[in-house]
Amino acid sequence: MSVKMTEAEIAAALARLGNWSSREGQFLERSFAFEDAVTAIGFVVRVAMRAEVMGHHPEMHILYGKVDILLSTHDAGGVTDLDLALARQIDACV
Length: 94
Hints:
The chain has helices at 7-17, 37-54, 81-92, and strands at residues 21-23, 27-33, 59-63, 66-71. By secondary structure, it is of the alpha+beta class. The chain has one domain (7-92): 2-Layer Sandwich (Gyrase A, domain 2). It has a four-stranded antiparallel β-sheet with strand order 1-2-4-3. The longest helix has 18 residues, at 37-54.
């Protein structure tokens, strides 16, 4: 089981990750903007395939060309190294 990170550990990781932010140490979050819904949905499919391989699934909200993603390791009660790894995978999908 992954261990929940402290807010200081999350802040240090976010400095290296870029474009992601923390919501009260419970989630990593990022919004992605695309030119249309089809492109946004294609991105969501790529993310879903990588998440499935990792066995760690993000919360994703799609509104036309915008995709909001939240990451959290529910078993640990917050952000873990698994969320950081998935964030890097998600960034590679853009």
